[in-house]
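Lab notebook: predicted structure, single chain.

Context: the supervisor wants predicted structures on file for every construct in the current expression panel, including those that have not yet been purified. This is the next one on the list. No modifications to the sequence; it matches the entry in the shared construct table.
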Amino acid sequence: MKIANRNDGFTLIEALAAIAILSFVAVAAYSGLDSLCATLKKSEEENAKWRDVAMFFDHVEKAGIASAPFQARPGRSVAEGGNNDGISFIRLGSQYRANGQLSTSRAVGYRLREDTVEMSIRPLTAGPDEREARAFPVIHGAQSLSARYLGADGWLETWDKPGRPRAMEIRLALSSGEEIRRIIRVR
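Prediction complete. Output recorded below exactly as produced.
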């Protein structure tokens, strides 16, 4: 009678060693995947922050260039009537609606409230009950917002002269430490 040789299976020690190796590989893969997800989330947040900043400056540039008469005062928001850090413009209706009429003239203002830059819009030609300003958050995580205006006699903190300045310098400081300055030519 022949005795069977049991060499066609794994011993308990071999199985435990294989499980330990697979566990180590799984932990390494999980930590790598976790760091990849964290990097992706941080990258998306940074991208959203800089996209919001770019959109803010683009909108300020369009509002400032299209403003007539140009009225810009720091510390007082024409659109809100408040006394916060801010920049304000009176924007006359300049774009046509679908029916061919001019769009509504409005006061456009930007101000810093807590850590958020808000854009406020108030129609100038609406009835008394429709003149309520509406505020929209534009940038979260802001530390300061200010502007200077280039006139014939140099840079000024306020613009109360007739006509328009040659340029505006908008300064925005973010809570994360960056300070962005943009000089906008006013036409």
